Give the backbone structure.
Amino acid sequence: MLRVGVPEYRLPTWIIEREVADIVDLGVDLRLNSPVTNLDDLFVQGFDTVLIAVGAHEGIRLPIPGADLDGVHINTVFLRDVRLGQPPRLGERVIVIGAGDVAMDCARTAIRLGKQVHVHYRRSLVEAPADPEEIEHAEEEGVEFHWLSNPVEIVSDGNGAWGACALCGWNWASQTQAGAGAPCPCPVQSRSSRARV
């Protein structure tokens, strides 16, 4: 995950290779491409403890219509493919949904691929979970942010690929309406829009 899940601009390959070499130099026995199918076999081989730290995680698709259309990418797969030198085909305009650190990695990676990038997040800047410095760097690099904006549907282009993203504006509900500052969908037509590729 370290090698393919973190963009090159954030963690260059040469640093990963140096760090791995330092760990091996400390006496760690590094075995690559060695699937473990039975933990009991490891104890039989003389290990007293087994720590499972595979570093594998998977992104999830949004639970909205159209999320499975061609051209809608999962964050971790996108970052992996770019890191491995096999970036997916993208339109000139890219929408990134979310404002966490991985979303910033995706947005900044797409910028490096020469794309116009728009980040849509259902909450405000204050609630964005990404490190504020990451958001600042993304803005400096040309990423456009749309706060209180949430996708409600990925609209097909009629050929099985995505053609637009239907968005809904959000407002803050009062605590008595929805609990501690939870956003609620804004039904005002003027706050609804579609972003096209």
Remarks:
- The chain has two domains: 2-44, 75-196.
- The first helix runs from residue 2 to 5.
- Strands lie at 93-97, 116-121, 144-147, 149-156, 162-172, 183-185, 192-196.
